[in-house]
Amino acid sequence: MIKGPPPTDIFPRGGSPSVFRYMSALPVRGEPVSLGEGGTPLLASRRIGPSFGLRDLYIKNEGQNPTGSFKDRGMAVAVTAARRSGARVLVCASTGNTSASLAAYASRAGLESAVVIPDGKVAQGKLTQAVAYGAKVVRVAGGFDDALKMTLRLVARSRVFYPVNSINPYRIEGQKTVSLEVYEQLGRKVPDYVVLPVGNAGNISAVWKGFRELKAWGVADGLPRLVGVQAAGAAPIAEAYSKGLGSVRPWENPETVASAIRIGNPVSWKKAQAAVRESGGMVVAVEDREIVRAREEMSRKEGVFVEAASAAPVAALKLLDGMIPKDSTVVCIATGTGLKDQEAVDWKMDSMPLASDDDSLARLLSP
Ligand SMILES: Cc1ncc(COP(=O)(O)O)c(C=O)c1O
Predict the structure, then answer these.
(1) Does residue 222 sit in the same domain as residue 333?
(2) pLDDT digit string (tens) for 283-310?
(3) Domain count, the chain
(4) Which domain holds residue 60?
(5) pLDDT digits (tens, 9 = 90+) for 90-135
(6) Hey, which of 203, 306, 337 would you mutate to test ligand 1's pocket, going by the most ligand atoms within 8 Å of its Cβ?
(7) Alpha-carbon Rg for the chain in angstroms
(8) Do 151 and 222 belong together in one domain?
(9) Are residues 330 and 228 in the same domain?
(10) Which of 93, 259, 339, 365 could be disulfide-bonded to 147 (CB atoms 3.0-4.6 Å)?
């Protein structure tokens, strides 16, 4: 909570799982702006976990949110607050998912949305969403870090714009509900480890806030260790962690196949460092080839198709092998669906065999 006493009745009886199920733990009132966010499946791993000897590996499939990523949790709460405050134009800089989510929730609320994207660095499917929901989209030269700086200068210069990047505290409040949900889905149990991708580092701070509050409110008696995962080509926080540095040095030209976490100057690095330190966790970096492999494995071995960034936690399991006790309960957060990040999957329609008749179809498909 931003302010106020511990909420009562955090887990109401009945009702379907959703972000606003936890209304008493959120600093917003009034009618929610909702598209049915939250209540995503926590899937017990059938093959990947056992391949590492992990009995209790779970995948929290945040790709099943309304626009296909965890961003919807925070956006629902931020747009609810924005509408009550009389905001008119909601703006964000985005690597893609935030823009899709903002545009959808602004439409739902009857507000305008404006999106600033790094030119050429956003997955096509995510932009398709922003355009379809009616956002005004502007490209800027450079990477996400440049887009965010320009967006914040725009907000400083004109009060018409209401910023909804993850520095907006309502975004963090909404995103923290994933922790409350995981706790409930595990049968009111705190996992031993939560592993999640880290870009701008808003989400790791939000996840930590959720668990910390559950403990502070006397609901849960423990805390998980948080493991933040960055792509090796965009890993300023992992670098600071591995070198034991107190502050994070920005990276100039971050590069990775995982476009959602291609961020060199993470705004919330201090909160991320605190979350990792306080939880006794760590921040690791994984190579792109491991991310691509993990993505394929998640699809083929678990039936969960994620975008590249969202495969980073599963890619990190190899590094964590030997560091995590085998009887731990581990939750990997699959932050977004693969459906809108298709550039990263290598296939071509005309390279697929073409059946000209029944015989050739049978021949081509026989095992
Ligand atoms: C799919 C996905 N995963 C992870 C992240 C990283 O979240 P954060 O920037 O809050 O660290 C993002 C951010 O855009 C994302 O879209």
Answers:
(1) yes
(2) 999 999 999 999 999 999 999 999 999 9
(3) 2
(4) 19-68+171-342
(5) 999 999 999 999 999 999 999 999 999 999 888 999 999 999 999 9
(6) 203
(7) 20
(8) no
(9) yes
(10) 93
